[in-house]
Design a protein that fits this description.
The complex is a heterodimer of chains A (440) and B (290). Chain A is of the alpha/beta class and 440 residues long. Chain A contains 13 helices and 16 strands. In chain A, strand 12 and strand 13 form a beta hairpin. Chain A is globular and about 65 Å long. The relative contact order of chain A is 0.12. By secondary structure, chain B is mainly alpha-helical. In chain B, strands 1-2 form a two-stranded antiparallel ribbon. Chain B has 11 helices and 2 strands, in the order H-H-H-H-E-E-H-H-H-H-H-H-H. Chain B starts with a helix and ends in a 9-residue tail after the last helix. The chains are: A alpha/beta (440), B mainly alpha (290). Chains A and B meet through helix 1, helix 2, strand 8, helix 8 and helix 9 of A and helix 1, helix 4, helix 8 and helix 10 of B.
Amino acid sequence: MKRQKLVKLIIGFGLVAVLAISIPLVSGCTSPAATPTPEEEPIKVGIATTITGALADDGRMHVRALEMARDRINAEGGLLGRPVELLTADLGNYTPTELAAVRDTLKSAGVDMVNYNWAVYPAVTDYLMEIDSLVMHHGWVSVDWQEWYDNKDSFPYWMTLNQTEEGYGVPYFQALTNPEMVTWDFPNKKAAIIVCDLDYSVVQAEWWREEAERAGWEIVLYEIHPVGNVEFGAQMAKIRQENPAIIFMSSVISTEVIAAYADFLENPTDSLFVITWVINKPEFWSAFGEQADGVLGTVPGFFMVDSAYTGSNPEYQTYYAKGRAIWDECLERYGERPSLQTICADDSFWVWAEAVERVGSVDDYDAIMEAMFDYPYVGATGTYGFDRDTHAGSYQAGNVPLGFYQIQGGEVITLAVGEGENAGKNIEKITDFQVPWWLE
Amino acid sequence: MAAEQAVNLVIVGITLGAVYAVMALGLSFIYGITKIFNYAHGAFFTWGAYFAWMLSSGYLHLPYPAVVVITVVIMFFFGFGYEKAFMYPLRRFAGWDITAIIVTLGSALLFDNLALALFGTRAKRMPYLVEGNFVVGGFTITRHEVVTLIIGLAIMVLLILFLGKVRQGMAMKGVAQDQTGARIVGIPINKIFSYTFAIAAALAGVSAILLAPKILVYPTVGWVVFIKAFVVMVFGGVGSIKGTAIAAFILAMVEAFVTFYLGGIWGTPIFILVLIIMLTIRPKGLFGTW
């Protein structure tokens, strides 16, 4: 009898635990269409993204982009006269169980397209290819792209906005040391590099390091840390000893960058604090407010954020106008500005939607891809002309500009924009660099 | 190695050691007295950090001394309530100690996911206890690190005094030595269990306040600290305050120097390796009794 009660008790606790675990997962799993047309069968767009886990911030921004796009297209009568419906599946922390669940969920729902941000884990690509729907990948991750490219014969229906993250490496270092952009006399030619052990971050750091060494800089620290590390005391001890002119942190995990910067602020050195993608993530700004002023970052794609584009380049003016519209809509609707994830997701959706409209079919993937190859798409982040071999809309900064940013007054300000092979050298300056407060 | 580097590393090690010690003391305290291995101790840390965040930079913007006091009080009752709600009902059954371990694991997941549902995935940042630096003989030490060390050491001393001099503490020691014997001589076991969890949760709250400004507050942050606290507890000897304190400083120092010389990816593996070596040589840890 006592045993029965114990079993009941354990089951009771188990149920409570399962319920608690389920709440956040369930809350991010469905997303009905805004204005469905009842008589028409909806077009189903699957969103494979990170609703939970270390990259949950990106996932939230991704979903918002597609919600806004869905509502815009449905308000105008839908795609091919059919309402667009979203189905979100959580990649979480990319465990095999989570990936299999995403694959099974989207496959059984019969989605017409899978919109996928990026994962930096080849396994995600493998699982998504098994859905057998056209995949639109946001790009700038060579690991994801390479996994598809190696298997392209078995699954050709994969398109990416960009195939590589090289922009974070060579052009970024060039821009940082370009006196036209950074008007600060470096006290030495020493740099410290802190890298997360994801392939994606290591690749960027390697390119950055090679370019720095080519330019005669000494790398006084090259530290690879495990994903999720939030204790940087020992690394900062070394940095404080060497006092390098640049601290370059290559990581896409906000918590890592926030923790490292918080450690740096305890006793700042005479260094520029330079990060990559995380500069566009609200998680970073909100953690520091104006204490983040002076931090530098880069984001591939044209992403004029807090600062307006006032230059004369007509293409940039177009990108800016499109990006600004998404920016304003996001701010109004969600009370929070978008990240680049939002803008990229929007572009990847409309590249596909425009091709579908052109072809007049949502399931003729060959024809849809042909339309993408034949007709470049002008989006908010750049112009995407897809290559028939790589299925990428751009390579490095080929036809998509790189933005170089600095946080000023608590906002992300564009310092300069570069394009082409020498994106870090041939820049168009937008805003004056500000010497970080800890160097004044 | 330059003197400044060595001093910086020792400071990093000592500061981390103080926090690990406070955290591990709570874990060790619960196991030593109640014989329950509390998987939810990391969740105590997480919730202590969230309470502190809400009281400070999150919502109320209270001065730090008030944040510390209120968080400790809240966590004391949190631990007390946890024991009453989750552990006490189990103790009526045979083999409850094993069931209790499973329940602590389940409740840890429950609390983590409640934090996720309530506060979202976005990491929160807490300000340092005290801003600014001390410059001593050419070495720069942050005030936060000094305060962390002082609080850590003070808690250890207070805990030793509590267990050695205060009636309630001595009763706890009695329960730790022999529960049946303690019951026979009239020590209220149920009350002791509840106070043990309460004190351990308060300790987790203190370590959260000390460490959260450096490692942020997010739903699973407790596990990061919990794993280290577990290693410290086993290394020092389960139930031994002295052993836990010494182990915390040794392991934190090892972590700091290994990270410095070999890189961050070696910090945790070496941390665990040192534990394995210790357990091979001395299975009961530095000052353990089992």
